[in-house]
Amino acid sequence: MKKSMKGFIAIFVMAMAFYVTGITSVAATVTQAAQDKNSVTITWPAQDSAIEYYVGIGADMQTARTQAESKAITLPATTTSYTFSGLTEGTSYYAYVRYKYVSRSNRTYEGSVGYEEITTVPGKVTGVNQSKWWYYAKSVAFKWNAQGSVGTTRYEYVVRDNKNKVLKTDDTSSSEGRFSSVKNNKLYKLQVRAYVTINGQKIYGEWSDTAYLFTQPMVKKAYVSGNKLKISWEKIDGMTGYDVYVSTKEKTGYKKVKSLSKSKGSLTVSKLKGKKFSKKKKYFIYIVGKKKVGKITYTSGRHYTYEVKQKKLNWTFD
Prior knowledge:
Elements: H1 2-21, E1 31-35, E2 40-43, E3 50-58, H2 61-69, E4 74-76, E5 81-84, E6 92-102, E7 108-119, E8 129-134, E9 139-143, E10 154-161, E11 166-172, E12 176-180, E13 188-198, E14 201-204, E15 211-213, E16 219-225, E17 228-233, E18 241-247, E19 255-261, E20 266-269, E21 271-272, E22 275-276, E23 283-293, E24 296-299, E25 304-309, E26 312-317
Antiparallel strand pairs: 1-2, 2-5, 3-4, 3-6, 6-7, 8-9, 9-12, 10-11, 10-13, 13-14, 13-15, 16-17, 17-20, 18-19, 18-23, 21-22, 23-24, 23-25, 25-26
């Protein structure tokens, strides 16, 4: 008897709610319909007896709902889509939609249409550059500037040789990568693009500018002869030029003694900071390779340093 009474009351309450508010059981869904780098368009199904709609956006669902409840963006009943603009590239947001409607008892109420996580298209990846090249391990690491929301944006990168043959492609959620089994003294090309997944489909940003990867030139010979320092190194295919650095200390005090063209693979240095060289002293050397493309100059960086004393040549690395 008690169970039957509870069931009757529940049915009565549902019936009255339907009569008073006019709410139906039709599911409402907010959907991301279109996007670019700085905007997203959402759509939703028309709601029965709607008078107007309110939309909100935020980094989380509650913020988006609060904005919708504030009625900051109010739309007429005939509207079932809205475009949020001024957004950040490759970033996730939440969109929330509410509405006002007239009930069967001719009263006005507010309800929720729903919410959806939305994402903008990533922009062009920047900051692509070599981190380190390990000459003896035959491996190179590289990185780029992270984009958009962590966990939302992923990256694809492609490594090519100097003749544009694809050597490696990979997919990662981080902003760095690595390519092993390189050939030392060869130049490689790298491009990266970001992407997000929207409604099960990968949406890609623009490919980055081409970055260039190459080893630090390795010193073959270095010694003091007749109060002068003689240096020779392994040339790298495709270089623009080389910078030669010398110091009397391993960690500090380096001076760029010469910038040379790509055709050069040796140098004789007469003085360091106004002083002649001595066979009794230690000197430290490193070479930096350069590749200039337009207004950008890519460099090998400094990873290996060479110690020179009495024709002995030892290397260390950072």
